[in-house]
Amino acid sequence: MNVVRYERLSYDILHYAKKLLGEQFFVDSGANDTASQVEVLKTLDITGINRVWGFGSSAGGNKLITKIYGSTGWTNEVSSTASVVTELTQNVTNDEMKTLIQSDGFIHVFIYTEPSDVTTGSRVVLDCVMFDLKIKVSANDYIKSMIASNHVTNLATQAEAETATDNKY
What we know:
By secondary structure, the protein is of the alpha+beta class. 29% of the residues lie in helices and 39% in strands.
């Protein structure tokens, strides 16, 4: 039969970076669209860990394989031959992240098992998946981005400020 069971996961790394650093962090760097924001993202010190808990079975026995898509194709292969839920971990270095983050800000992970045959099916069982992301930025840059993203103007009029009252809330 040669049927292969698989799952493809896509992690929006740019979205998580914006939630962590704030949109203004990218705007201050001159990045107003996705393509330029991804370029700014790739200049940062970013590492990641792809974690998959699961197992796979097929005609070839028990095997679960996971790979991450990069600019040169599928890479960072890790596999397990366990017959029960087991953690597969892929550590992703800063240099690797630069090739794995796609132009849309996503990282794509492929999880699969070996093919089936006439008598034995192919099966992928996933318990949990996650991508841990670590971004290092200078404290100065981060504080500036947080101030900019939380800055609100015109909270009170001059008179309200002087009397410590605010009729807006």
